[in-house]
Amino acid sequence: xxxxxxxxxxxxxxxxxxxxxxxxxxxxxxxxxxxxxxxxxxxxxxxxxxxxxxxxxxxxxxxxxxxxxxxxxxxxxxxxxxxxxxxxxxxxxxxxxxxxxxxxxxxxxxxxxxxxxxxxxxxxxxxxxxxxxxxxxxxxxxxxxxxxxxxxxxxxxxxxxxxxxxxxxxxxxxxxxxxxxxxxxxxxxxxxxxxxxxxxxxxxxxxxxxxxxxxxxxxxxxxxxxxxxxxxxxxxxxxxxxxxxxxxxxxxxxxxxxxxxxxxxxxxxxxxxxxxxxxxxxxxxxxxxxxxxxxxxxxxxxxxxxxxxxxxxxxxxxxxxxxxxxxxxxxxxxxxxxxxxxxxxxxxxxxxxxxxxxxxxxxxxxxxxxxxxxxxxxxxxxxxxxxxxxxxxxxxxxxxxxxxxxxxxxxxxxxxxxxxxxxxxx
Length: 426
Description:
By secondary structure, the protein is α/β, with parallel strands linked by helices. It is built from 17 helices and 14 strands. It has helices at residues 11-18, 28-41, 43-54, 65-74, 77-97, 135-148, 167-176, 186-195, 212-220, 246-257, 272-288, 292-298, 310-320, 332-338, 353-358, 394-410, 414-421, and strands at 2-5, 102-108, 111-119, 122-126, 152-156, 180-182, 205-207, 226-227, 235-240, 264-269, 303-306, 324-328, 344-347, 384-392. Helix 2 (28-41) crosses helix 9 (212-220), helix 6 (135-148) runs parallel beside helix 7 and helix 8 packs parallel to helix 9 (212-220). It is globular and about 90 Å long. The chain starts with a strand and ends in a 5-residue tail after the last helix.
């Protein structure tokens, strides 16, 4: 774990902090090969790679409704209740994001302009497996799509070695309203959703997080299927001052670290005392947490940095562009107002990333590796498309006639000009 005053951080150390996600190029050839096989061989390739990477012999690629119902019934009622609470909050938040379906404005008499919002027909949601099950990601990906009005939402998630899917993930898929669930993961799942196979339905857009191979696959299929954004290993940046509690801050660093050995956790603070206390707390808590091996590997990517002012902390955060940003300072609003680049922002000592990961209602599928500079986190706008509309009367076109003809002829597009002129010939 890097522990330094910001001014003492070397260029090499700073580059490592700021340049996350560069490993995509290293897996491109492998990803391309798998995608090609899926496109050419369909279900056969899915079974081959599922056996290779997940150790499972697949018969049925799609999870049946009976299996989903059986999984749902096997889950404790209290746990289902918690899924329902989380789902309700997610649904409420994303419903508030919905744009008006159709609107019009009159720019002048006879000229009415508007916009029509249409949901995508089909969307694919990728829910990771591997080290842990992620029912929360099923909620986060499927619910916003359904809120937006997507007719057909399919979900892909890796199977366990016996070919079954984690029951809680299946229960979450049912609660969220997924239309189809497939027991496939990795690059092969992305290829299946992009190209379609004998079993898997092709989709208009693929959303959801994944490892470097999944992210690279999403980037490579964009010529056929749109994606949300690159979403790789998880990360948190915490801006804190002397008002923060070292135990709380350290626990948030550990929580982030337990995601993945490649996860990134950074604290930047104006308090040398807090930095020292957090470092000690992180080392202590890392040995007590159940996933300590993953946490300790991840802490190699962590940093505790000391800055001279809150302004420096803010500038660093905007350059870092974190997936998750926690603000734990005495004047929270002043810092929040100056944040430009962050996937999701957590304000106050009682707003840990865990809240957004599971139950507050905001989406936890977020851009990583600095992509928060140019991408928004998953929201209902990812599941709709916009068509502009113009309603123009004869008098309205007459007002525009001279401008259209002049500009069209200046561009050498005489037919464009004539299309207007011909409407006013006797």
